[in-house]
UniProtKB/TrEMBL annotation:
InterPro entries noted in UniProt: AMMECR1, AMMECR1_dom_sf, AMMECR1_domain, AMMECR1_N, AmmeMemoSam_A
Coiled coil: none
Protein name as annotated: AmmeMemoRadiSam system protein A
NCBIfam families given in the database record: AmmeMemoSam_A
Pfam families: AMMECR1
Organism: Photobacterium sanctipauli
Domain AMMECR1: 12-195
Name of the gene encoding the protein in the UniProt record: amrA
Amino acid sequence: MSATLYQNLNKGELTQLLDIAREAIRGHFSEQMPQAPQLDLYGKKLIEPGACFVTLKVDGQLQGCLGTTVAHSPLVLEVHNKARASAYQDRRFMPLVEEQLDSLTIEVSVLSKPKPLAVQSEQELLDYLATNKVGVILSDNHQQALFLPQVWESLPKPVDFIRQLKIKAGWNAVYWSPTMKIQTFDVNSIHGKYF
């Protein structure tokens, strides 16, 4: 994926991605076998390899969120596959059921390429995040966790954001290591109701 693909998507292209996510979920509840999107129906930018996350909420509560930071396949296929995975394969939640569809919202986030952030301490990281509300990936010793930039809405203080991210990775909230790797990224996102 080009580093700028996520910035170049216009409202119409993002709307197409949201429609793909809706159809991927809808296909699970129909009698026909769900079909992957036909690449020849989409513009060049949407069939380039792209990294994305699809986030599902029911009544405002998280119901599923899966994605990838590395572009492996055409963006339209990634969105389709991640929507289905978020609805039915996120192990943190029971699979989506038909009764939840009326209150379901879908958010598609297309990621920029993650960039390493060189900091010497956790305080340096917190200082950076005080003025840069970006997505963050922390990794150390085969453990890793990611928060999309949207998480800043519920965790607006950098110290809380990073503590919760460390807990998500399986570390304690005060864990820090000189070998900790930090990457940051931006997203271009769209959300809407299922119906």
